[in-house]
Design a protein that fits this description.
The chain is mostly helical and about 140 residues long. The protein has two helices and no strands. It has a domain of about 80 residues. The longest helix has about 45 residues.
Length: about 140
């Protein structure tokens, strides 16, 4: 009896992520493809004016899609972390052949940059001229 429960737990634990993905895909396909076509066909068959299908999953500001995106995104991230941790803990890393050692690069001192000569003094103002005034009022 305990083995049966263990097998059920293992199946559910392993398959809940793909099951959520398949369920979300099925709901979206039905709500966005199948139901709109059936809705139009039923209206034509009953000779009623054809109205547009309002997707059920988009009602309530699309909260269903936001919630499923969060669940599937976090599940995918969690599964990735499980795989990375499992790969680091369970599988030995293969030994790679050693590459020939190269000497460490020697840092070089920067070369001094030649400075441009100072600009020639402007001939507009002479040393005896009064200072200019700001006429822009700022």
């Amino acid at each position: 009896m305990a083995e049966e429960v263990k097998k059920d737990e293992d199946w559910m634990q392993k398959k809940w992520r793909p099951a959520m993905g398949w369920m979300y895909m099925l709901v979206c396909m039905m709500d966005m493809v199948v139901f709109p076509v059936l809705w139009a066909l039923i209206q034509v068959a009953t000779k009623q004016p054809v109205t547009q299908w309002n997707p059920l999953t988009l009602q309530g500001a699309g909260l269903f899609h936001l919630a499923m995106g969060a669940v599937l995104g976090i599940a995918a991230f969690g599964r990735t972390q499980e795989k990375v941790a499992g790969a680091a803990a369970n599988t030995p890393t293969p030994s790679l052949p050693m590459a020939p050692s190269m000497p460490a690069p020697v840092p070089m001192a920067p070369r001094p940059v030649p400075m441009a000569p100072p600009p020639a003094p402007s001939m507009d103002l002479l040393p005896d001229d009064p200072p200019t005034r700001n006429t822009r009022n700022d």
